[in-house]
Amino acid sequence: MATIQEQGMSAPSPAAPLEEKERQELPVRRVLIGATGSVASIKVPQLARSIIKQGLDAHGLHIEIAIAASNSALHFFRHEQLPEENVTLYTDQDEWSEWKKIGDPVLHIELRKWADICVVAPLDANTMAKVATGFCDNLLTCVLRAWDMTKPRIVCPAMNPMMWEHPITDTQISTLKMLGFGVIDPVAKTLACGDVGMGAMAEPDDIARVVVDELAALLARGKEPAA
């Protein structure tokens, strides 16, 4: 994988075919998607596409995406399933391989600086517990532990209904809300395991709409994009 400097933390081309001049005139916004060890991570490629498309179609935004995926998340989608343009995948291994010596950029700090917004979709029960208590033992949780709390952050829980209904979940969700995280509640349906109930991640298009609307609101308020 290319280094941070080589990638420049952005991709050179838009999702839709646009003339170079048109692309240069579009406001650029940067989204960090966090993917964790829920089967709902199979929808990460769809979420990335929907954010890019809705950003362009609804608000005329050129959106670049970085994905910070846990090792468990990578069980559910492959790099080649992601859009070829405007999306860069980072893993826990990249956190260590990018850093060679004192003075080199630290990936989780670079991602924190780069992104205008973070959406963790899906947020599994394990990562929920980590973020609510400040644990930071992988790339994504390190980004969130270092997050600029003036920037929006959204989580989309996804877990078995019995895990969602456990008392500790309510406590941890309340903690995340207190810390300023927006929470897109799960929905009730038949889950991949066959159980029926509340716990499935919200639909990617619905999540994308919230993310894109938040970016548009930042633009309307004159909020400068991340450096």
TrEMBL record:
Flavoprotein domain: residues covered: 30-214
Gene Ontology BP, a term: coenzyme A biosynthetic process
A UniProt-annotated Pfam family: Flavoprotein
Keyword set, alphabetical order: Coenzyme A biosynthesis
GO CC, any one term: phosphopantothenoylcysteine decarboxylase complex
Region (Disordered): 1-22
A molecular function GO annotation: FMN binding
Sequence ranges of Polar residues compositional bias: 1-10
Family label: Belongs to the HFCD (homooligomeric flavin containing Cys decarboxylase) superfamily.
Protein name per its UniProtKB record: Flavoprotein domain-containing protein
